[in-house]
Design brief:
- By secondary structure, this protein is mainly alpha-helical.
- The protein has three helices and no strands.
- Helix 1 packs parallel to helix 3 and helix 2 runs antiparallel to helix 3.
- The protein is elongated.
Amino acid sequence: MTTSNTPGPGDVDPAVREELARLRDSIDNIDAAVVHMLAERFKATQQVGHLKARHQLPPADQAREARQIARLRTLAENAKLDPAFAEKFLNFIIAEVIRHHERIAEDTVNGPAPTPN
């Protein structure tokens, strides 16, 4: 029979539990801030999508995307964050923005799709 040396919840020093709770509260606050910042970012990119659609500009701008990725990689390096992770994160966001811009462009041409009842 194998026994585990991992302490159970009641075996953890109360000071350790308090520190863990404090750190988790901080993480929760940061997560909330990230979500709110992303919401603000997407509000701005929606406006860009409408502007592009009105002027028949393409949904994607590869030159801008490349500049943004390079910029974000530098910011990540300066912040001691893995630049590859930062690039993956930005690529995920860019893909979502392009998807929104394509939908906005389509709605501008064809009118909004009917919503199901």
